[in-house]
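Whether sequence alone determines local backbone shape is best considered at the level of individual chains. Part of our work consisted of pairing the sequence of a single chain with a tokenised description of its backbone. This step matters because it turns folding into a mapping between discrete strings. For completeness, the protein is quoted in full, as a sequence line and a line of structure tokens:

_____
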Amino acid sequence: MEGKQVRLFFIDAMRAWAILMMLQGHFVDGLLDMAFRDPENIGFQIWKYFRGITAPVFFTVSGFIFTFLLVRQASAGLENPRISKGIKRGLQLIFLGYLLRMNFFGLLKGEVYGSFYFVDVLHCIGLSILGIIGIYQLTRNSRKWLFPSVLLTITGVLFLFEPFYKTWNFDFLPYAIANYFTKTNGSVFTIIPWMGYTAFGGFLAFVFNRFKSHKFLYPTAISMASLLGLALVFLSSDFFMTLFKWTGISLFSNIYFNNYLFIRLGDVLVVFAIFMLLRSYLNRPLLLRLGQNTLSIYVIHFMILYGSFTGIGLYYYLSFSLNPLFVIPGAILFMVLCSYLSLRYEAREVAIKGAVAGIPKLLLEKTDPAVQLLQKSAKAVIVRMMRILGMAKN
């Protein structure tokens, strides 16, 4: 029972905090006038630092939740119901990631704009979930600690060798595939190194599930997360410089000069410790509902801010144009609006999904010119995508 409560009150509260931080972060970063982005301003420094924590926390918590639900099942292998659900969820996230970047006006012309292929949060989390499932399946007949060991190793390798692979453009891969590995073409997030945070969340989930009935779980977890987190934040850079001086290996000095991955990992652990410490105060229905509906909140915020399907959103009209007097209350209203719409969607989810599911049938039954044009455009888009992926000839 305690393990279940922790998942509800501790992890869901973290997810709610992370998604709200993401909303205000995207709003402010997209609309604040460049003239007010003063790196010497203490307020802007604090905002920028905490904005940088959001994505690592979100990726780590996503990996934690999925893996915790996966490993706590008594059944193993394909009999584990979380396998099929995870595959479905992972593919759904990747599909939504592309759908949100689809431009309807381009679709009508049979064109796919380059931004459609940019990889973002949903793509990476979806692919990370599929990766965790694959690792789980490959290690399920081995020693129990092999699964978390592989997850932790993935985190270490991706973070340690980031100075090397970040310079690669992966131009030997098809454009759409290369975007999962490099930001050269415009991707916001890439599977490397961001799967490292999701894998680390999976590692934490396994350890937590293993010791969930331990009498001193929370005091031990809070102490270890705090100490290790603070060490990564304040000592990891000097540690890598020391390794460079001892070994002469340039990799360690490269990490020292851009040590954001390990520092952010420390931030994540500190956030975990804080939420565990406050767990008895987090049993708030609204907070938990927000934490359980982060996907719909993300989708709604993307549509309003960036104008999914049309390209016309708040960013289209107000990008880099507002001063703090408008941005700050605007960000608060934006968080409230997206949260409200998400909860309204939750209340009508079944009816909305039923209506959406009927659209393909409706399109197939209709033969008017407008629908025929849409069908023709969709076919052209599919052919173009296959060519880009190397699956069809020009």
Summary: The CA atoms of residues 174 and 389 lie 5 Å apart. Residues 217-247 form the longest helix (31 residues). Residues 1-7 have pLDDT under 50 and may be disordered. The radius of gyration is 22 Å.
